[in-house]
Design a protein that fits this description.
Nuclear Transport Factor 2, Chain: A; alpha+beta; 6-stranded mixed sheet; 4 helices
Length: about 140
């Protein structure tokens, strides 16, 4: 089970980096819970798809130095990575976008059920990001 979960999370990030949203979303359970960094939780694949559409409009990001860990039973996983990004369009409540580039350490925690991501919780230092984009 551990190896299957590691492969699932690696596929999740490969699809993200390829901007292949169809493959990315196919890895999620229909009732996926998405805990947004310093924000609310959203439930459901449709909500996650809308979130990603917004993110892809405002940001271009590529994750590097990805390290994935999983429990022996494969029900939980975690990942640590570096986000290399470009701020494309102003996001509400955040500094104005002018194509600023940023590099930000981040992490995520996952719950896996029936071979799909059932919960993902992302963490990064928002004040550090704001400082990098000149806010």
């Amino acid at each position: 089970m551990r190896e299957q979960t590691l492969t699932l999370i690696e596929r999740y990030y490969a699809a993200f980096n390829a901007a292949d949203m169809d493959s990315f979303l196919a890895l999620l359970s229909d009732d996926v819970v998405h805990d947004i960094n310093q924000g609310e939780s959203e439930t459901g694949k449709a909500a996650f798809a809308a979130f990603m559409q917004h993110m892809n409009r405002c940001y271009r990001e590529r994750l590097e130095d990805i390290v994935v860990m999983a429990t022996d039973d494969g029900t939980r996983a975690a990942a640590e990575f570096v986000v290399n990004g470009e701020y494309l369009a102003t996001d509400e409540g955040l500094p104005e976008a002018r194509g600023q580039r940023y590099r930000l350490p981040a992490g995520a925690f996952f719950e896996v059920r029936d071979g799909r991501v059932a919960r993902v919780t992302n963490y990064y230092n928002l004040p550090n990001w704001v400082e990098q984009v000149g806010g």
